[in-house]
Amino acid sequence: MWSCVLSHLSKNSTVGLRVQNSYLNLKLVSKKNIPFFHYLRYIHILLNSYPDIRAREFLEMRLVILDKPNDVAEWAAKYVMKRIKDFNPGPEKFFTLGLPTGGTPLGMYKKLAEYYKNGKISFKYVKTFNMDEYVGLPPDHVQSYHYYMFHNFFKHIDIDPNNVHILDGNASDLEKECDDYEHKIKEAGGIRLFIGGIGPDGHIAFNEPGSSLVSRTRVKTLAHETLEANCRFFDNDITKVPTQALTVGVQTVLDADDVLILITGSGKALALHHCIEQGVNHMWTASAFQQHKHTIMICDEDATQELKVKTVKYFKNLNKIHEKLIEEYERV
């Protein structure tokens, strides 16, 4: 593991040689079973010693802990804006963005629309791919994710509707629709940044507990618990809730260059615990992002209720480093 870290630093960091000298002190113990937290602590020391190193060159999965859901929304929006601006998209170079639905990302969408209105960001050269859609709901149904996205986000920004991609839950051949969606993502050059949320049971998109961690976009029959949870959006009548959905797979999201997961509220606390402090498990599908090269999980205080005190303390001590990921736009 240490050899991989050293190799990455030497190739990708302007201060790789200085870091290499520091690393030599640890080489003697590199053959031992080094706990993951010791590894994180080592990276923390390096970042404090060499502040000119970009934080995202090191940590594979980061947890940003903020006070309130509004703070999560603002931080996420600033990160999305920075990633798009850093990419510098144009007519021949589109930024590809994976997007979620649900209550958690609403604040982020509102902030991004505000930034667009104030001239801070444009979505003219952005292509989007949404995570999922119900089977059988017409696009203009108020609970369809087509309606959600256009009502809450797309109609408030300058994105070209032709660059918006949402799965068609009314396609005549649903399996072909899913295969075509994967092809469109590949044709667009892959997803640069995939944003998501997680359910109380740790699922991402409609990849419910037990889903394959190498799954691709597919038709998914929804669990009864999901139908019960969603019936509040359908007049509290479970018979009105669609029983199937089209969803990107766990591997579809893992293929993205960067992943940003938003988690708010005490109802997601147990899921966050499994994603951060437990091992990778297909019963908690969002735990798969422990294996992703650049994942940020951003949460509020309420969502940390099931985490160990030392875990919360550790990641809060990294907040100054995490702020480097958005600091360019703190002054805008």
Query: Strand content of the residues, in percent?
Result: 5-15%
Biggest sheet descriptor? 7 strands, parallel
Name the helix and strand elements from N-terminus to C-terminus, one letter apiece: HHHEHEHEEHEHEEHEHEHEHH
The main sheet orders its strands as 1-10-9-6-2-3-5
Residue-averaged pLDDT? 86
What is the alpha-carbon Rg in Å?
20 Å
How many strand segments?
10
Note the gap between the termini. Answer: 39 Å
| Low-pLDDT windows of residues | 5-34, 50-59
- The percentage helix is 25-40%
Shape category: globular
Structural class, please? alpha/beta
Would you summarize the structure shown here?
This protein has 332 residues and is α/β, with parallel strands linked by helices.
Description:
With 332 residues, the protein is an alpha/beta fold. Helices cover 36% and strands 14% of the residues. It is built from 12 helices and 10 strands. The protein has helices spanning 2-12, 16-23, 36-49, 69-87, 106-117, 145-152, 174-187, 224-230, 250-254, 269-276, 309-316, 319-323; strands at residues 61-66, 95-99, 126-130, 132-134, 164-165, 193-197, 218-221, 244-247, 258-263, 295-300. The strands form 2 sheets. Strands 1-10-9-6-2-3-5 form a 7-stranded parallel sheet, sandwiched between helices. It has a 3-stranded antiparallel sheet with strand order 4-8-7, with helices on one face. The radius of gyration is 20 Å and the shape is globular.
